[in-house]
Amino acid sequence: MDSILTEALLPGLELAFANASCPIKGLLFTNPNNPLGQCYPTSVLEGCIQFCQRHKIHFVSDEIYATTSYKCPDLQNPTPFVSALSLNLAALGCDPSRVHAFWSTSKDFGQSGVRMVGTLTIGSCPTSPTQEITLDRAVPLHRQTKN
Ligand SMILES: Cc1ncc(COP(=O)(O)O)c(C=O)c1O
After folding, report:
1. Which helix or strand (DSSP H or E) is residue 121 part of?
2. pLDDT in 10s for each residue of the chain, 147 residues
């Protein structure tokens, strides 16, 4: 399973895309990874974004654990977290309107159930064509309640 954190992931994505039985609209990427709790190397992150660019699909980076990082004696040289939004997308030849990242208050603030999310897209998007960076929030409809 650790191989998903390496460049071995990239041919696997191509294979999955080629064999998909339905139209693929995007790649949902969780960095830091859940359940492995480790971060993706920048080269893998860039490769995934370029994969999305090649296939004209969206790259959606779930960065909910971005600030939840701890030292671990089992990992001598842990890969540091790099946000998809910090990359030079132009240098990668990628359309910034296809790269999105989101973060929620649920982990850092213990707010599971509140389900509020911030989404950032660099570059113009259909709802806000003149802005370079947009911030949206959404509260999902389902919620657990207690008497
Ligand atoms: C990686 C990851 N993303 C998103 C979520 C959703 O978080 P919430 O709906 O509580 O904001 C979770 C929840 O466990 C998660 O582990």
Report:
1. strand 117-122
2. 667 889 999 999 999 999 999 999 999 999 999 998 899 999 999 999 999 999 999 999 999 999 988 888 888 889 999 999 899 999 999 998 899 998 888 888 887 766 677 777 777 655 555 445 555 566 555 555 565
34 in ligand 1 pocket by Cβ < 6 Å? yes
Cβ(30) – ligand 1 distance below 6 Å: yes
d(CA 59, ligand 1 centre) in Å: 17
Q: Is 62 touching ligand 1 by the criterion CB < 6 Å? A: yes
Structural domains of the chain sorted by starting position, each given as residue range(s) with its CATH number in brackets: 2-100 (3.40.640.10)
- Torsion sign, CA atoms 43, 134, 123, 16: positive
Is 64 near ligand 1, meaning CB less than 6 Å away?
yes
Residue nearest atom 10 in ligand 1 by C-alpha distance = 112
Rounded to the nearest 10 degrees, the angle between the axes of helix 42-54 and helix 9-18 is 20
On whether the CB atoms of residues 106 and 139 are closer than 8 A, the answer is no
Residue 34, helix vs strand vs coil: coil
